[in-house]
Amino acid sequence: DYVGRLYADTLRRQQVRGLFESLLEMYPHESDIRDLYSSYLVVSGDLRSAAEQQEYAVDSDVSNPRRWASIMGLYAQLDEPQTALKTGERALEFVPDDPVIHILMGGNYQALKEYDKAMKAFRDAEKLIDPSDKATLSEINSAMGDVFYARQQSDSAFAYYEKAVSLNPDNLLALNNFAYYLAENDRDLDRAERYSAVCVRANPDNDTAIDTYAWIFYKKKNYEKAREW
Predict the structure, then answer these.
(1) What is the distance between the alpha carbons of residues 161 and 146, in angstroms, rounded to a whole number?
(2) Enclosing H/E stretch for 106
(3) Angstrom distance (rounded) from CA 213 to CA 18
(4) Counting CB atoms within 10 angstroms of each CB, which of 12, 37, 45, 109 has the fewest?
(5) Is 85 exposed, middle or buried, given 0-12, 13-18 or 19+ CB atoms closer than 10 A?
């Protein structure tokens, strides 16, 4: 609460770091303090320092998958997939059965265009997910669809998008990507429009969703509506 009040007062924000540094001098191994400090640094836009605090925290609790995932996510946001993957390899020594780590590994391999490794990571994650967790399974299948499309294997990509949408009809990323790539290939444009409409209704201010919707109307030669969107 005190940190929140300091942050709310722009004239006192500089005191927050001093507060955390003082706390960490007294309690250097208190991971909860480092968690809170890391969260503050993320809000402040200092992602590198936030990752550093999480790395200190995870050293005192190497079996905590949430912290490993946080570090990987921060390095991914810093556009450092290699560092994220090194973190993931360390994480798997301690939490080999955590599906989130495998999913993050797959995403970072995908960023490096190492598609075979990405697919292996996603498939490993899929094996570890509880079958009742339809939302996460949908995300994994959507990611695998992205990999196949990047490899110019559109039929396989569409099969995975189809599965992702059937597992979770509210998976907006899968719906948007499926709709966009259908339009790119001039396939089932009515279906693409339906899926894209769901995304636009759910995120009316999202440029990516709106762009897809406009593109589909353009592909359907409905130029007035394309211009409008």
Answers:
(1) 8
(2) helix 99-111
(3) 48
(4) 45
(5) buried
Please give the Cα distance from 7 to 105 (Å, whole number). Answer: 34
Give residues with Cβ within 8 angstroms of 88, minimum separation 6: 68, 72, 101, 104, 105, 108
Q: Express each pLDDT in 201-217 by its tens digit.
A: 999 999 999 999 999 99
Q: Which residues contact 19 (CB under 8 A, 6 or more apart)?
A: 2, 3, 6
Burial class (CB in 10 A: 0-12, 13-18, 19+), 103: buried
* Distance (Å, whole) CA 84 – CA 201: 34
End-to-end CA distance of the chain: 43
R_g over Cα of the chain? 21
Tokens standing for 165?
């949408």
8 Å CB contact between 196 and 213 = yes
Contact 140, 125 (CB under 8 A): yes
**d(Cα 199, Cα 169) in Å, to the nearest integer?**
11
pLDDT band at 152 (very low <50, low <70, confident <90, very high): very high
pTM score of the predicted model: 0.88
**Which tokens sit at 191?**
């279906």
